[in-house]
Amino acid sequence: MARAGGISNPVNVGIAVQADWENREFISNISLNVRRLFEFLLQFEATTKSKLASLNEKLDVLERKLEVLEVQVSSATTNPSVFN
Amino acid sequence: MAMAAAMTFDEVSMERSKSFVKALQELKNLRPQLYSAAEYCEKSYIHSEQKQMVLDNLKDYAVRALVNAVDHLGTVAYKLTDLFDQQSSDVASLDLKVSSINQRISTCQTYIDKEGLRQQQMCGAAPKLHKHYILPYSGNSKYPGMVQQLQTEFRQDSSEMKPRPYNSVKTLSWHLSSENSSSSATSRTVQSSVEPKAHKIATDTFKLPGAEREKGQTPIPLSRHLHANGGNMSPDVVSQKTSVKVSSHGGKQISTFRSFENPTMGRQIIRAPPRTKSMLSALFVKNKAAKLKKISVI
Prior knowledge:
The complex is a heterodimer of chains A (about 80) and B (about 300).
Chain A: H1 2-78
Chain B: H1 2-47, H2 51-120, H3 144-160, H4 172-205, H5 222-229, H6 235-238, H7 279-297
Helix pairs in contact in B: 1-2
């Protein structure tokens, strides 16, 4: 019985070690995919930031053009004698 | 229709933004769900006796949670990219409109500047055009209708007494007046002698050989004979020389029309009669040349 218990202990240990290794492999796979997800999020953030910055710049230029046009039109409407 | 289309475009853009916000909200809600699931699995693994089953369930839940998170992130990224493309297109169209308005205003400004410059320029008055073709009152009634009209205009202008800008330029009026003054002296003596001669010559030249001339009948004119024969003239008729002598200044004989005698020669140049000849003789020559030209074409 003692020998049987002694024989079963290494088997149990072996099974436990194998299970541990499987768990570790599973954990590594999960962590790897999480890291890939994180990298995707970083890349997505960078591209979105650049696109939003360019859009913001275009909007600023448009806003300035509109301000100039507004001033020109207001000056034209206030002085109709220029067109006579 | 335009208003309905505009409303649908706005509704589409509103729906897009709403879906993006909804997806982002769902992604945000995943965080507390994952935290609560992690705490439950930890407590159950500690207090439960069947740890292996809890571990297996935990592995499955982790895999499904990760897939769900990736799905949500993809949806949020897609909706954000779509919204960004829509905003970019709107900004581009707005830029085009602003540039068009700017171009219009610049064009108006350019025109205004040009007009202002034109008004402010120190330039003299524009030159006026004066009547050139004014015949002086000659007294000869060759062209009574035209002369009378021009005389009235001349009197009106002479009454105004405006100085002419040009000088020492021989205008048409000068030539015509000189012609009238020279022709008035000689045409009276020549006209009486030339006109019956011209009339006689006309009747003689248009008399066709072989054509029976009935008594009391006037000779058939060349044009009528041409039309009757259909343009087939005998060479004898065409080769007749037509000459008109005008005795005003030595009398120049007009060269003959010999196209049928020498077809290769072509039509010889007929010299224009000088201005002292009578108009009737000049017209006679011109009509003859026109008719013979028609014969050569046929």
